[in-house]
Protein: diguanylate cyclase
Organism: Desulfosarcina alkanivorans
Amino acid sequence: MVPHILIVDDDLSIRDAMQEFIETSGYEASVASSAEEALDVLSGNTLEVVITDIMLPGMNGLELTDRIKSSHEIDVIVMTGYSTEYSYEEAINKGASDFVFKPVRFEELLLRLKRVLNERRLNQERIHMLEKLKKLSITDGLTQLYNSRHFYNQLKGEIERFNRYGHQLSLLLLDIDNFKDFNDTYGHLEGDKILVCLGRIIKSCLRKMDTAYRYGGEEFTIILPGTHGEEAWTVAERLRAAVAVEDFTDGKIPDLEITISIGVTQYRREEEISSFVQRADQAMYQSKQAGRNKVSFILDGDDDG
């Protein structure tokens, strides 16, 4: 995509000459004669760089720079013919990426523009890479659900919100029934396919506010903010039923039945994270003991279903 540059100057001859030069240099260019007009242009266009004179009618170029940097991811190059009244430091402190003096040599301006655009590209690539690395650090590579490390960080945050605002909070812990036998019979590659498919099913059964995690091996956890235990049991039962009817191998392994056992619990004020998770694990174990492919709900350490 060709970078889009906005030129802000109240001198028509300078504005038009600069626009022609920038467009001839291979960029898209728009113009504005005042800061207010520039803000209107910004509201309706995607721009990379604004080149603005400091001396403008109404709002000056430094004020414009401040407004731009407070609400847009756009670089600003500031121009001035008053070298003694405005300093490089003032412009940079307002968020400008560069500062040039009038009369501007267009060849010099082009070099500065290219440098700003290059630094902008490198910074965006750096941000993208950091976001990618962050996502990788909290994501299970196989199922693309969150990993167990992120589970505890997220659960801690949800508990803090519970204690502050009193919102309900429930937790599901589930395990694939007889998964070791499946791996022993069909191999770990086929087992991985089951885990991937289960991850997709889990995502399809949740709301946007819910988050799912691969807890370890064939165990998964689901955090349900704003949800009391009875509602969480309904979510768990919907998930259990969806797994029970799923053909995980597209008919390649006839008569294969994959089921899950789920434990459900809700958070008690001021309890430790370990106690909360352990209670969900106990509920899941009850589902195993009751014959698997079941949902069990434990509240306050007692069996509620």
